[in-house]
Design brief:
- The chain has about 220 residues and is an alpha/beta fold.
- The protein has one domain: Rossmann fold, CATH 3.40.50.
- It contains seven helices and ten strands.
- The protein has a six-stranded mixed beta sheet, sandwiched between helices. A four-stranded antiparallel beta sheet has the order 2-1-4-5, covered by helices on one side.
- The longest helix is centred in the C-terminal third of the chain and has 16 residues.
- Bound molecules: adenosine-5'-triphosphate and magnesium ion.
């Protein structure tokens, strides 16, 4: 499903952000990526989504080495991957409904189909009644649930989440973790970068620990 072989990545002349990373995550697995600030967690997720390219090595997603994928092929890859960003990246001038709907507008779905799927996914994250509001009118936890809704509406095979509970209190964080677990229970592969220990203990799944760009625990 996801395989990295001897991946190196550095930004400019700085010390490598990732050094000789080799691991695999199976289809349907729920993996946590943890480690101190600057360890390379975000960089690793970006490589999986094609937002960054490795200096060397292979990044294989669903049997394709995306390190060599043409720029024009990236949108196809991204259709099968949902990405939950640390800083939300919501469209502030669009409603809750439209923030989710835009994720389907590049597909061939009809307006009726889009409406049905958006309402269904908003219901699953408990935001159906807020669908006409703008993101600023939502709490932090609700905004994060909106991000989850947007990432899953296209039925991705992989969901990547970068600190999805970063600014949330314990209850809100638990809600997000439960949502991600539910998505995973339906067969979606989930990879979450976090330094929240409570998350790690609530999920109780495989933990991959990064330190200074290297995997120090959880490899196989
Ligand atoms: N765009 C960039 N340009 C230069 N250096 C960068 C860039 N992005 C990340 N880095 C560097 O790469 C290293 C890994 O950063 P990364 O953001 O992947 O860490 P992280 O584990 O996600 O940290 P955090 O827990 O703080 O989010 C850091 O040393 C960082 O300074
Ligand atoms: Mg990060």
């Amino acid at each position: 499903m996801i395989q990295l072989f001897h991946v190196y990545k550095s930004y400019g002349r700085h010390r490598a952000a990732l050094e000789d990373i080799t691991f695999r995550i199976e289809k349907g697995e729920f993996a946590l990526l943890t480690g101190p600030s600057g360890a390379g967690k975000t960089t690793l997720l970006k490589l999986l989504f094609g937002l960054e390219r490795p200096d060397s090595g292979q990044v294989v997603i669903q049997n394709r080495n995306i390190a060599r994928l043409k720029e024009s092929s990236l949108p196809y890859l991204r259709r099968s991957i949902g990405f939950i960003f640390q800083d939300f990246k919501l469209l502030q001038k669009k409603t809750v409904f439209d923030n989710v709907a835009v994720a389907l507008q590049i597909t061939a779905a009809s307006p009726t189909e889009i409406r049905r799927r958006v309402l269904e996914v908003l219901e699953s994250v408990g935001l159906e009644h807020k669908r006409e509001l703008l993101p600023v009118m939502l709490s932090a936890g609700e905004q994060q649930r909106l991000c989850v809704a947007r990432s899953i509406v296209g039925h991705p095979t992989i969901v990547l989440a970068d600190e999805p509970t970063g600014n949330l209190d314990a209850d809100q964080a638990a809600d997000i973790v439960d949502l991600l677990k539910a998505i995973n229970a339906k067969g979606t592969t989930v990879v979450v970068a976090t330094h929240h220990r409570e998350i790690v203990s609530r999920v109780q799944r495989r933990v991959i620990v990064l330190k200074q760009g290297k995997i120090v625990e959880g490899n196989r």
